[in-house]
C-alpha cells in the first residue's frame, strides 16, 4: 500500500514537470506565430528562449538556497503558483517586453519546481528506488516533447498561441490542489552553513560532475537545436517526415528515461553514465560518415536520443548520492549548468553553420564536446573513489 502511494506521488509530481517542460519547449514550436503576433522578428522572438534559460539558470539556485529550510511541499506549491502567474502574464501580454517578463517568471517557477521535485522524490521512495523515481520524473520532459509540443502547435493553429498558456496555468492550479491534498509533508534540507556550502562547491567530485552536465548538455544542444534543419537539408526529409521522425525520437526519449531509471537502480549511476556518454559520443562521431544514407543516420540519431535520456536519471541520482544533506543546492546548480550548456551549444552550433553554410558538421562538433563530458565523468568517479577510500 505504501509503495503504491509513493508511486502515485511520483506520478503526480511528474505531471507538474510535464506542464513546466511544455511551457519551456513550446515556444520553439510556435516562434513564428509569436513573432508575427508581437510584430517582432523571429530572431528577436528567440530571445524569449534566452530569457527563460537565464532566469532558470540564475534564479533557481538563489531561491533554492533561500528556501532550503522550508518544507518541500510548501516550496512546490509556491513555485507552481509563480508558474501559474507567469502563464497568466503570457496570455495577457500585449507588448513584447511583458512577454519577456512572463518568460522570466516562468523560468524561475519551473526551475524551483523541478529541483524541489527531484529532491522530494529521493525522500519519498526507498534508497534503492531513487533511480526509478528520477527516471519517472524525467519522463515528464519526454512526454512534453511527444505530446505537449505537438498539442501546443495544434492549439496555436486552432485558437492561437495564447491559449496554450491559459491551459498550462489552469492545469498547474489543478496539480497544486492535488499536491496540497495528497502529498505528505516532505522536510527541507538540514540548515547548511555558508562554510559548508562553500566546501561543497569546492569539492572536486561535485565540480567535475557539474562539468559532466555542462559538456553533455552543450553537445546535445549543438545537435538537437538544429535537428530539424539537419533532417531537412542533410537527410532531405519533407515536413511530414520530420514531424513523424521527431515523434519517434520523443518516444525513444520516453523509453530511455524509464529504462535509465531502472538501470541506475540495478547497476548504479556510475556505470550508466559512463556507458551512456560513450554510446552518445560514438553515435555523434559516426553521423556525418553516413550522411548519404537515410536509415543508418536515423538509427544513429535514435541511438543518440536514447543515450541522452538514459543518462539523465543517472546524473541526477549521482548528485543526490554525493550530497544527500544538500541535495537541493547541488541539484539547483546542476539545472543552472544544464541551461547554460543548452545556451552555449545553441550558439556554438549556430557558429558552425555560419562558418560552413551547412548543418552537416554539427555532429562532429557535438561529438568531441560530449567526449569531454565522458572525460569529466572519469575524473569525477576517480576522485569520488579516492575520497571514499580516504574516509574508509
Please, could you describe this protein's structure?
This protein has 392 residues and is mainly α. Helix content is 85%, strand content 0%. Helix 6 crosses helix 15.
Spell out the helices and strands N to C.
HHHHHHHHHHHHHHHH
Write down how many β-strands occur, each being a DSSP E stretch of 2 or more residues: 0
Overall mean confidence score, pLDDT: 84
β-strand amount: under 5%
Structural class: mainly alpha
Secondary structure tally, helices: 16
The shape, in one word, is globular
Q: Low-confidence segments, ≥5 residues, pLDDT <50? A: none
Give the termini distance in whole angstroms.
Answer: 38 Å
Task: Characterize the main sheet.
Answer: none
| Overall helicity | over 70%
Rg result: 20 Å
SSE order and pairing:
Elements: H1 2-29, H2 31-38, H3 42-45, H4 47-66, H5 72-92, H6 96-124, H7 130-159, H8 162-182, H9 194-201, H10 204-224, H11 227-234, H12 239-267, H13 269-286, H14 294-322, H15 327-356, H16 362-391
Amino acid at each position: 500500500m505504501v509503495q503504491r502511494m509513493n508511486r502515485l506521488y511520483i506520478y503526480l509530481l511528474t505531471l507538474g514537470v510535464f506542464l513546466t517542460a511544455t511551457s519551456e519547449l513550446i515556444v520553439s514550436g510556435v516562434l513564428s506565430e509569436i513573432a508575427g503576433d508581437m510584430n517582432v522578428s523571429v530572431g528577436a522572438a528567440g530571445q524569449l528562449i534566452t530569457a527563460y534559460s537565464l532566469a532558470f539558470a540564475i534564479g533557481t539556485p538563489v531561491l533554492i538556497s533561500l528556501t532550503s529550510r522550508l518544507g518541500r511541499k510548501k516550496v512546490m506549491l509556491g513555485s507552481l503558483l509563480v508558474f501559474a502567474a507567469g502563464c497568466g502574464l503570457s496570455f495577457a501580454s500585449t507588448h513584447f517586453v511583458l512577454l519577456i517578463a512572463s518568460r522570466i517568471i516562468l523560468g524561475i517557477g519551473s526551475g524551483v519546481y523541478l529541483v524541489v521535485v527531484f529532491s522530494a522524490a529521493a525522500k519519498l521512495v526507498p534508497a534503492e528506488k531513487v533511480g526509478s523515481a528520477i527516471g519517472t520524473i524525467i519522463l515528464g520532459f519526454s512526454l512534453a516533447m511527444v505530446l505537449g509540443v505537438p498539442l501546443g502547435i495544434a492549439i496555436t493553429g486552432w485558437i492561437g498561441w495564447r491559449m496554450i498558456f491559459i491551459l498550462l496555468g489552469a492545469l498547474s492550479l489543478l496539480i497544486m490542489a492535488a499536491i496540497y491534498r495528497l502529498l505528505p509533508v516532505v522536510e527541507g534540507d538540514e540548515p547548511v552553513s555558508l562554510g559548508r556550502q562553500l566546501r561543497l562547491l569546492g569539492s572536486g567530485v561535485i565540480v567535475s560532475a557539474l562539468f559532466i552536465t555542462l559538456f553533455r548538455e552543450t553537445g546535445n544542444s549543438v545537435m538537437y537545436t538544429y535537428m530539424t534543419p539537419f533532417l531537412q537539408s542533410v537527410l532531405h526529409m519533407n515536413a511530414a517526415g520530420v514531424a513523424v521522425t521527431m515523434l519517434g525520437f520523443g518516444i525513444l526519449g520516453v523509453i530511455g528515461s524509464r529504462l535509465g531509471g531502472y538501470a541506475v537502480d540495478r547497476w548504479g549511476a556510475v556505470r550508466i553514465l559512463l556507458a551512456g556518454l560513450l554510446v552518445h559520443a560514438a553515435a555523434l562521431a559516426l553521423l556525418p560518415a553516413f550522411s548519404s544514407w537515410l536509415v543508418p543516420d536515423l538509427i544513429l540519431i535514435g541511438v543518440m536520443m536514447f543515450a541522452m535520456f538514459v543518462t539523465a536519471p543517472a546524473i541526477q541520482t549521482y548528485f543526490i548520492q554525493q550530497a544527500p544533506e544538500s541535495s537541493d543546492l547541488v541539484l539547483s546548480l546542476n539545472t543552472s549548468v544544464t541551461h547554460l550548456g543548452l545556451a552555449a551549444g545553441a550558439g556554438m552550433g549556430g557558429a558552425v553553420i555560419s562558418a560552413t553554410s551547412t548543418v552537416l558538421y554539427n555532429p562532429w562538433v557535438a561529438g568531441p564536446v560530449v567526449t569531454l563530458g565522458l572525460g569529466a565523468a572519469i575524473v569525477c568517479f576517480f576522485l569520488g573513489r579516492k575520497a571514499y577510500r580516504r574516509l574508509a
